[in-house]
Amino acid sequence: MKLYKRTLSDLKEMLEEERVKLKDIYESISYRVKNVEPMVKAYVNQNEEVDLNKLDENDYKDTYLKGLPIAIKDNMSTENLETTCSSKMLENYVPPFNATVVNKIKEAGGIITGKTNMDEFAMGSSTENSAFNPTVNPWGENRVPGGSSGGSAAAVAAGMVPVALGSDTGGSIRQPASFCGVVGLKPTYGAVSRYGLVAFASSLDQIGPLARNVDDIAVMMNVIAGNDEKDSTCVDRSYPDFTEYLKNDVEGLKIGIPNQYFEMDIDEEVKDSVMNAVKELEKAGAEVEKVDVTGAEYALAAYYIIATAEASSNLARYDGVRYGLRAENANNLSDMFTETRQQGFGEEVKRRIMLGTYVLSAGYYDDYYLKAQKVRTLIKNDFDELFEEYDLIVSPTTPTTAFEIGEKRDPLEMYAADIFTVPVNIAGIPAISVPCGFDKKGLPIGIQLMGPHFKEEKLIQAAYSLEKILDLDIDYPDLEMEV
């Protein structure tokens, strides 16, 4: 029995029924990591404190997660474990505290197995921007896993961990979930604490789970959702038991299909797969109608103005003075600042800092940043109006399947990979990506379900239903190192 192939929910149940021991689970997963990680390169570092010889399920018997393994994207603070954001700027940096989500996982009895690779400071859509190495999509040799949470998605897809946390600023959970054939949820802005998340764009960033199925997404949301007094953007409200919405029922569900999204440049196989999934939902009792979405064509431009502006502000703290890299042999303080940032940041991070600084500069603030914020308001208001009539809005998660490493050299072409995901972050609404098929090359295709603010349970029920209706039964990709 290959325990690494089991989902978190399966393993949790097996432990509760005493059919397996925690040590057996970790031995299976550790063996899988040993054989697969050299090929996939999903981890930046692994938690060496997990001692298989000392694991005892009795220590975790009364906990919600039962001592099961969870991987964490490397932009969430972990005490006694390096948090580098896959950047030379923070290489070897060990935070003095845990992010709130990390503490919640530990309190629930989860064990952090390691930190996953990412685009540097979460800026990218392919995990090629990591300062250490690109991660490889388990589904295709020389294919990207998506980004910026590519390491988390790849680790789950390759069977190296049942679930992982990622962060989503413009699609960084959902896009890699789609590319890697897993499920990824971006919660409502304010539903999950961002305390301890290294900031990229503070009004857009959100932490969420990636998993093999919707069941595990619900389990992880039960752990990480909730108010946090350390995060002023967290909303103080009650949350349901998300596992109670694991129901195969879409009867009467009203779904909107945005005309503008499907008129954009989309791979035909992706479009057909998504529309086939929509037809299956319709057959199961959902009501489907086409809708118009205001400002869809401007969402990407608005996002890259707002996100880069916030990035230029947030990354100003990396100056070589307080923590992280400090350039040596500088003649004066000004040279030290300049050299530190020159040596510590990669090309994409520098590009976004410069763009953000430009749109915030005198004479351009009104022309760019202020206009982008107005577009943001229009997009949010439009979603609010749509959700007065519809339960969900459905689109492809990405316009294509996973592209090859090194294929997209033009930054604008790379940015277009987020065209369907960025409106969700701009509006602050929740969205989930679920596998809905494969292209002719055998690469996964994802469908995106978008819902109203703080209605993750609606998304979970619809996603769970779609998962059962399609019944894809996705196995782990053949990595030629099967154990």
Give a brief outline of the structure.
With 483 residues, the protein is of the alpha/beta class. The protein has helices spanning 8-16, 22-40, 100-107, 150-157, 174-180, 214-224, 259-262, 268-283, 299-314, 333-344, 347-359, 365-389, 411-415, 422-427, 456-470, and strands at residues 43-46, 69-73, 111-116, 163-167, 183-186, 207-211, 254-258, 287-291, 392-396, 431-438, 444-450.
Number of domains: 1
Number of helices: 15
Q: Mind telling me which CATH architecture this is? A: Alpha-Beta Complex
Placed side by side, the strands forming the largest sheet appear as 1-3-2-4-6-5-10-11-9-7-8
**Approximate shape:** globular
Mean pLDDT equals 95
* Helix amount: 25-40%
How many strands appear in the DSSP assignment? Answer: 11
Give the class from helix and strand content and strand pairing. Answer: alpha/beta
Low-confidence region ranges: none
Give the percentage of residues in beta strands.
Answer: 5-15%
Q: CATH superfamily assignment?
A: Amidase signature (AS) domain
The radius of gyration over CA amounts to 21 Å
Largest sheet: 11 strands, mixed
Identify the CATH class: Alpha Beta
Oligomeric state as shown: single chain
Description:
There is one protein chain. The relative contact order is 0.14. The chain is globular and about 65 Å long. The chain is an alpha/beta fold. Helix content is 36%, strand content 12%. An 11-stranded mixed beta sheet has the order 1-3-2-4-6-5-10-11-9-7-8, with helices on both faces. The chain has 15 helices and 11 strands.
